[in-house]
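queue> pop job 88
queue> type: inverse folding (structure -> sequence)
queue> payload:
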């Protein structure tokens, strides 16, 4: 049975998709069977995985609306992991789900038929707390929260934790905060150090030891449709995600 991990933060630009794609590749590189689910209508995880999002026969939109079974939506990627891709059509699901019965359980129900084929299922959520994100939180056993060490980081984190508590109480009591991941980390700045210290003080046992540095190779890799590990395995960002993969396995 797969460990299902959602990646969420209602604040955009924190490295959520970058973390999802690169962790998938890093886990695959050490022999784990990984499925990445792109649940963001922007489809950045899809293009960053080398998939043309303009020509999809199966997608998370089709999956959530019941037009395709999960097995019909899965594609292989150059990074060695599988993906259920997404594009702008996923916005349709946001609207149609609202009128459906059991709407928050659609993803969990769809994954039931294939989750035993994987070691890890990683879900890249949109940067909003909408019905797509709720579906991810209901389907997941654990939540990874990428946090950029900047001024508003803790404010956004508090709102997300409130949502998690509501999901735990109503739809998914097994959901846990699996880890808080510090991204775009620059230890030379006082603000980074201060916010990092606050995270450790408030969530010490949940904060990953691994930090993801600011790294130009991580930023460049998506334009080539590759995770950083394939683009430049020696880059600091690539090595950081390899370390994160090991830490997640240990947890």
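queue> result:
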């Amino acid at each position: 049975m797969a460990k299902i991990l959602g990646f969420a933060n209602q604040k955009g630009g924190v490295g959520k998709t970058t973390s999802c794609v690169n962790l998938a590749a890093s886990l695959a590189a050490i022999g784990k069977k990984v499925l990445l689910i792109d649940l963001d209508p922007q489809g950045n995880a899809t293009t960053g995985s080398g998939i043309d999002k303009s020509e999809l026969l199966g997608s998370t939109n089709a999956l959530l609306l019941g037009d395709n079974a999960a097995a019909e939506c899965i594609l292989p990627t150059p990074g060695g992991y599988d993906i259920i891709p997404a594009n702008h059509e996923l916005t349709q699901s946001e609207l149609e789900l609202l009128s459906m019965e059991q709407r928050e359980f659609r993803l969990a129900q769809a994954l039931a038929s294939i989750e035993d084929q994987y070691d890890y299922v990683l879900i890249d959520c949109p940067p909003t707390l909408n019905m797509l994100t709720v579906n991810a939180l209901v389907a997941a056993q654990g939540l990874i929260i990428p946090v950029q060490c900047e001024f508003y980081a803790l404010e956004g984190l508090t709102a997300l934790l409130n949502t998690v508590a509501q999901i735990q109480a109503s739809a998914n009591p097994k959901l846990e905060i699996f880890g808080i991941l510090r991204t775009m980390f620059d230890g030379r700045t006082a603000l980074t150090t201060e916010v990092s210290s606050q995270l450790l003080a408030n969530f010490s046992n949940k904060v990953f030891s691994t930090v993801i540095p600011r790294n130009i190779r991580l930023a460049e890799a998506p334009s080539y449709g590759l995770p950083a590990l394939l683009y430049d395995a020696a880059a600091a960002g690539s090595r950081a995600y390899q370390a994160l993969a090991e830490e997640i396995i240990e947890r």
